[in-house]
Amino acid sequence: MKILRKTDIALIIFFILLAICLPFMLNIYFDSTKGDVVHVEVDNEVYATYPLNVDATYVIQVDDRSNTLLIQNGVAKIIDANCQDKLCVHQAGISTNNRAIVCLPNHVIIEIISETNQSTIDSISS
Amino acid sequence: MNTKQISNIAVLSAMAIILSYFERMIPAPVPVPGIKLGLANVVVVICLYYLGPKQAFGISILRVLVVSILFGGLSSMLYSLSGGLLSFFGMVLLKKTNLFSIIGVSVFGAVLHSTGQIMMACFILDTSKLLYYLPILIMCSVIAGIITGLIAYYTLANLNTINRIS
User: Nearest C-alpha of chain B: how many angstroms from A4?
Assistant: First the structure.
């Protein structure tokens, strides 16, 4: 059994190219429009909408699940969560249109929305 | 299914479960949340080549169930199951073509594993936002797949040597 065949290399290159091209196809990372509001969704339902230009700390509490959201200098970040993995706490702050922080265990989605320049990605679902 | 096959599955499942547990204790080498090497996948790949798809299927299902019950929860079981199943069937199909070596099969499995989990998460949370995470996951999966493929390749080579001697 050969350890590496030409087809393997082709497959690996294909996936690397896919990983590089996907951001362009999804039109993310490059939308540098500053967002206006922070949209918070819990269990697929709108929980609250906070202005991004007001520095504040909000506690998103549903049942026994809580996430603490900090908005500072136009950047939204989760600073505390009572979930197990704390992946959302480790994620970098978000400030531009359509970027999101997701807390999987708590079913919380925090999303930046620019009301002046709505991107196309969610135009169908919203 | 004879006794030897059953005990083979039991031993390999135990190995996969221990590797999953072991993996939780070592920190990820990259600062990306949720990235894992997928050491348990090594066992599934080895089994796919050494015993066959049926046994490998048993091991991947058993591993997901036991690891989720012991260390995770119901939601982590759903994520692992969707990733594990997609990855398993992808690897079986790719192996059947006979065009790829164990490295290719392992890389394909790793990529499908992350894709399956992301799709399940998108489905549960009913959002497309998580797809943003896919490119970096694919990139990390390719690297992880190459590493696990190499481990599986050398393990299999040694297993065959042992079988020749004994």
Answer: 6
